[in-house]
Write a structure and sequence with these properties.
By secondary structure, the chain is mostly helical. The chain is built from six helices and no strands.
Length: 139
């Protein structure tokens, strides 16, 4: 009897997702298809007219943008500051590799690069002076 009850419970648990299935998937699919049709039309227009930008399409062919909800401004961009630590510490701890990382991440921000270079030079001088004073590592 216990085994049959367990089996019934397992079957019930397995079938619950099927019972809770949402039938709105087909409606959602039609909605997405309509949006992609408008987007595909816009994409074809841009491919057929090289050098076309958003402002030109908005001015000359606004009907292509009617059914689309596009965001024209985003706040995604290049990082202004280095993550976790400042640029100085990236240059100080990682040296030339730190300089390269700062260059790539900040898109050659002059102030950040200068800070990383100062960190790199300071650690190079400290290690160099330490090598001159204590050449055999006795201290």
């Amino acid at each position: 009897m216990k085994k049959q009850l367990k089996t019934l419970c397992y079957l019930l648990i397995i079938s619950l997702p099927t019972l809770a299935a949402n039938n709105d998937f087909e409606l959602q699919s039609n909605f997405e298809e309509e949006n992609f049709t408008s987007l595909n039309t816009l994409e074809k227009f841009v491919q057929d007219n090289p050098g076309t930008d958003f402002a030109k399409i908005k001015a000359e062919n606004p009907e292509l943008l009617q059914n689309l909800n596009l965001q024209t401004e985003t706040n995604i961009g290049v990082a202004k500051d280095m993550p976790i630590l400042g640029a100085f510490w990236w240059g100080c701890c990682l040296g030339v590799i730190g300089l390269l990382l700062v260059y790539i991440i900040t898109d050659n921000d002059k102030m950040q690069m200068k800070s990383a270079l100062v960190g790199c030079v300071i650690v190079t001088l400290l290690v160099g002076i330490g090598g001159i004073i204590n050449p055999f590592g006795w201290f």
